[in-house]
Amino acid sequence: MKAGSVVRLILALLAAWFGAISLAFAQDYPSKPVRLIVPLPPGGISDNIARILAAKLGETARQPFVVENRSGANGVLGTELVMKAAPDGYTLLMGGSGPLAILPNLTRVPYDPLKDFVPIVHIGTWANLLVVHPSVPAASLKELIALAKAKPGALSYASQGNGSTGHIAGELFKQLAGLDIVHIPYKGAAPAAQDLLGGQVSMMFDTVMVSMPHVRAGKLRALAITSTKRSPAAPDVPTMAEAGLPGVEGGAWFGPVAPAGTPRPIVDWLNREARRIFSDPAQRDRLTAQGALLALGPPEAYAAHIGAELQRWGRVIRTAGIKGE
After folding, report:
1. Mean pLDDT of 144-153
2. Distance between CA atoms of 7 and 59, rounded to whole angstroms?
3. Measured between alpha carbons, how far is 110 from 92 in angstroms, rounded to an integer?
4. Which whole number is the average pLDDT over 289-309?
5. Where are the beta strands (DSSP E) in 151-218?
6. C-beta pairs of 296-299 under 8 Å, 24+ apart in sequence
7. Is residue 17 a part of any domain in this protein?
8. Which CATH number belongs to the domain containing residue 83 in this structure?
9. What is the Cα Rg of the chain in Å?
10. Which of 132, 238, 260, 270 could serve as a FRET partner for 58 with CA atoms 20 to 30 Å apart?
11. How far is CA 71 from CA 58, 80, 134, in A?
């Protein structure tokens, strides 16, 4: 037998051996409590879906799935913790657009979103509504664009903070429409929304869940949503493309990931169970009512999504000259 053939045979045997070990290991999974790290404070969307997922996985596996909020550095601390964990399926991360797609384009982070994690499942994306204060004389997106072009620098938009999804959506809007609108960053969604309601700023890209109650009350006017299709939570609001400006899409998205090297059978089990949990009508309807567009595809689709988002938001951030704080 030639040397090359011997090497290939040895490699094939080693691959089969490691595969058998991984499969045997995965068949016993989970045999002890699993940590699901949320790298953001309690009470947000990522925390909410993490607790739904953990509770339902725990019922199925008959082992506790424990949610731990490890916030800090805009999500970097919790994300790094999971990156350094053993790749055995017992420490998972509720990944999201902030730590995995936006922050790596804003500042140096101690992990590689594509190399240091194995995507499990993209649960969904929470698109933003473009809402304006009623004092703004624009009843449609086209009217708003015309107004902004007629009065450069006169309009302003609030965001939840520098580098937030609302900030980057606003910059993408400005870039594609060719507008001069002043960005006013706040420390969180609540103070930004408060100033918008008070008329101190002209507009904002904010979640459906936060914005729609104010729209229904007549305190804000919704002009468009940054999703590929209309949201069941705001069925009368056109998409940005329908309103005349294609390309302004996206929002905050979330889905669990595991440390690189986690056995594929474990990833497949988690993917299958998560898709089952969030496909249940009770959970599905609950999240879509909050403005979510559920994805629930295979791990490969989530990996492709993360890579595409890294590139897309990187272009917006570089063009706008956004810097991390």
Report:
1. 97
2. 46
3. 17
4. 95
5. 156-159, 182-185, 203-207
6. 296/121, 296/122, 296/123, 296/124, 297/121, 297/122, 298/121, 298/271, 299/118, 299/119, 299/120, 299/121, 299/267, 299/268, 299/271
7. no
8. 3.40.190.150
9. 22
10. 260
11. 23, 11, 36
Residues 6+ positions from 157 with CB-CB distance below 8 Å = 170, 181, 182, 183, 184, 201, 202, 203, 204, 205
Angle in degrees, 0-180, between the axes of helices 281-288 and 45-61, rounded to the nearest 10: 180
Q: Which helix (DSSP H) or strand (DSSP E) does residue 220 occupy? A: none
Is residue 178 domain-shared with residue 315, that is, in the same domain?
no
108 lies in which domain range? 31-125+251-320
- Nearest of 106, 27, 96, 94 to residue 66 by alpha carbon: 94
Could you tell me which residues come within 8 angstroms of residue 216 by beta carbon, excluding any fewer than 6 positions away? Answer: none
Global pTM value: 0.87
User: Kindly report the CA angle at 25 between 20 and 29, in degrees rounded to 5?
Assistant: 145
Identify the pLDDT of residue 325.
Answer: 66
- Is residue 144 in a domain? yes
Amino acid identity, position 128: N
